[in-house]
């Protein structure tokens, strides 16, 4: 309570506004892997799309 | 003139200016150049005109380090030398093989490929070659390259008549130069061993050991020891930087179209890295050889692929139904980085019948060699995928980081270095003219002068360098 009391009203509003944005970032899905990427799997050198 | 013994040669009262030791491709090529220029020359050949157990015994030795061939099996000691068991594969070192590489210490020659190219035409005649096809890049990383599978000229057979008829060349069989004598500025004589006994000293104006990529080091190490440094005054690198071409099966490939590349007469195709790819990956040169894979092996390979990429395996199975020839074994032969610690030494315990110490070869493949085969195959695999040419599978021993297999070819029987070419006497034995540093009349012929090994079989380059040395001496000796 003491820490919050020391925050300015402006800082407090900015922090509250930022919260949903952080939540959105956390929920962002991992970027889709490039199907043309060349990878090595069990010794095979293949295109990622080969694995489908 | 060909003599069966040193005694017969002496009786002929022929007085050569140049003494060549060894009648392999280097020795015979240099002698023919000098003879054609009217310069009298003798070739002392330690063996006779055919293989004998007694002569081969001189080549016995030991190897310390990685598994290697028996030293009396990996070379031949009779007229024609190693050309008698050569497979005939021909290619000249690449231009970039001659240039220094920042990522590999002690690389680079004092000469460039352009210095030996003027001799290529006569080398084509000597080795009965067709014209080389230029390398063809198939990606930024990989080029399709050519080895000419030549008829494998046996130098003793091809040139016997010319040598026998020549008035300027004497070939003396069964005559072993067991030691050169020097005073630190010149070689002053050659100790001859003939008919099981010391036959005294032979004198000439110039001396050229051409006894092979192991034996040149042995002869000069022994001679230098006996002359207290009078034969190779700057001997730091003598016997050092010895190199081979490691050769192992590194994987397999399934190909979209085996006929995409023109195969040679034994159905093989070769690929090498571009200089830019070598620099980016910090690796040495290599050659990947595609050998057609037998049908049962192809089926197993496709089954293995199905575990990783079922749809791609179906595509591969379709390729197999169209053409039984759709997969290959990938054999890799590659360049060993020059390393001071890989060296030819004189045995402290074993000698040949004449009392000359046998060879102790110290040879190991190191991290650079491992990286070259692994990264090289990955480069090739990536090109195959990117260009939709096929798919590559690396061998298990490479993927799992296991030791090199011991049941494969091991190496190419290519003995290089030991008397390497460098302008720096601390890093090499001969200069750009193949002359021993500090000596006025001692030159070296053969692959022992190679500063680096490239990825290709050495004979074509050996003959180019020999033709160049013969030319150089022809102008020098008047």
UniProtKB/TrEMBL annotation, chain A:
Top-level division of the source organism's lineage: Bacteria
The protein, known as: Uncharacterized protein
TrEMBL record, chain B:
Domain Glucose-methanol-choline oxidoreductase C-terminal as annotated: residue spans: 341-466
Keywords for this protein: FAD, Flavoprotein, Oxidoreductase
Name of a matching Pfam family: GMC_oxred_C
Cofactors demanded by this protein: FAD
A molecular function GO annotation: oxidoreductase activity, acting on CH-OH group of donors
Keyword Transmembrane: no
Sequence similarity: Belongs to the GMC oxidoreductase family.
PANTHER family the UniProt entry points to: PYRANOSE 2-OXIDASE
Record's protein name: GMC family oxidoreductase
Source organism: Mesorhizobium zhangyense
Lineage: Bacteria, Pseudomonadati, Pseudomonadota, Alphaproteobacteria, Hyphomicrobiales
